[in-house]
Structure formats: C-alpha cells, structure tokens
C-alpha cells in the first residue's frame, strides 16, 4: 500500500507517474532478460564462453520482473471530442439578459459574446442565478428580459442542476431510455457502447430507470450528452453525486474537448484547470475576464469590482 499526502488530484497524478515509472522499469528488465537469455542460448555450449554464460545465468535468476496489476479503481470514459458538426465563428451572443425571481434580481443587463473554443466558468454569489442562466439558454425558462442567439452551426447539450425531468414518469430500461436521445434508429449495440463508457455493462443496461441512484442518473446524463455530439456543452454543477473517479474523468474530458463550454462547478480543481475565461453574473451587471479561476479570485481589481456589483 502506498500513502500519498495531498488532495485527490495530487494522488491521481502521483499514482499515474508511479505506474509509468514502474512500467518503464519493467520494460528495461524485460530487455535485460532477453539479452541474457540470448547470450546463454548462444554460448552455453561454447567452452571459451561457458564461464560467462554461467555468470549470466546466475544474473538472470536474480531478476524478478514484477507483474503490473491493473488498478481496482474504474474510471469512466467521458469523451466529448467526437463532434457532430464543426462550429462556425458565430457561437453565442447575449444582450441585456436579466432575470428576476420572486422580486429578487438574480442578474441584470448581462452582455457578452462567446468566442469559438472558449471554456467559460459562469459564476455568481447566488446559485439560483447561475441555474436560471442555464435554464434560459436551454429554453426551460421563458420569463426573462433581454435576448440571446446561438450561431446557425451550433448544436448544444447540457447537464442541468436538476435532471428529474428526464427520469420522472419513465418506466423503461437504460437502453430504451438512451435510445430516445440518439436522433436515429440506433441499434442496441450502438446505444450500449455509450452506456458502457459510463461503466454500465452486461445486464446493468437492462435496469429500470425508476430505481437508479443519483450517481447512476448522472452517469446516464453523461451518456446522453456524449451521444448528442454537440459542439457547445453546458454544465450546471456536473459533479453532484459523482465519485472521485468520475470527477477526474469529467475534468479530463472537459479539458480535452475541442468545442466550447459554459459551466458552473463548486469543484475548485475542475474550474481552475478547465476555465479559460470567467463571467460572473451579478444584480448590477456582469464581470468578464479572460483569465484562470485562481487569477480571477486573487485579483484585487476584480475584488473591488465585485464589491461594487453586490453592494
């Protein structure tokens, strides 16, 4: 057993490095064994070389090639890069977007243009504001002021904060549930492949969606998102109900994605490693900065502006 001091990201990166070092070491040992075996085979019957062959035989007996055991941890394959259509230069334009809920201004006069390939962390001190923002962009909420427009080449997929609408009243297995979102008359094997990426295998794909846990529902939602082949992804607190392995896989999938992302997450490491731009929604407008999350929260200029926006 190896004990690591640090957070989960540190453990994951350290364990991967240790595995690579071990693999490299065993590769060198295997090459050494092969070299010794070839020498012994060639010269063991040669009187002038027999002493050297015997010496190498003893060296060979001392080499212990460790078997690299696969980790018992299972990482899902959250892969978004199989884009259905290449996005054009017009991604998303937001103008004067405002939302009030029960008399409370969640955000007001939000204006920005999304650039191709942006990975934008959407922030707010009020989580209702960020959820309302995604609900507007996904047409779940029609009660707002202002407007937004996606480019004609843009296809979207999202992970909402509340996914109950996708499972309530459903009485079907996972394959039939996911087939509804395939957009084609997909065969069972095709649909199973997307469930398999999220570690649903064998008879598990025949489980009724009515009995799924919160974590299993989230994995189904990721299967759905991957199946949609969208070029703009939106995530509202996507790490809810996920285990550490799934969070790591999601983090890597978001970093590797070649399209555009809007996301909100309370996972600091994910936000810091994915976001290339920060947009914060406030009751007095928005703050828009091309910087990492750590740079944003540590900026004195941003801190002063935030204090004004929320006062």
Automatic annotation (TrEMBL):
Domain ABC transporter residues, every copy: 92-309
CDD domains: ABCF_EF-3
Entry GO MF terms: ATP binding; ATP hydrolysis activity
Keyword ATP-binding recorded: yes
Keywords: ATP-binding, Coiled coil, Nucleotide-binding, Repeat
Coiled-coil intervals, chain numbering: 12-46
Family, as annotated: Belongs to the ABC transporter superfamily. ABCF family. EF3 subfamily.
Name used for this protein in its record: ABC transporter F family member 2-like
Source organism (scientific name): Daphnia sinensis
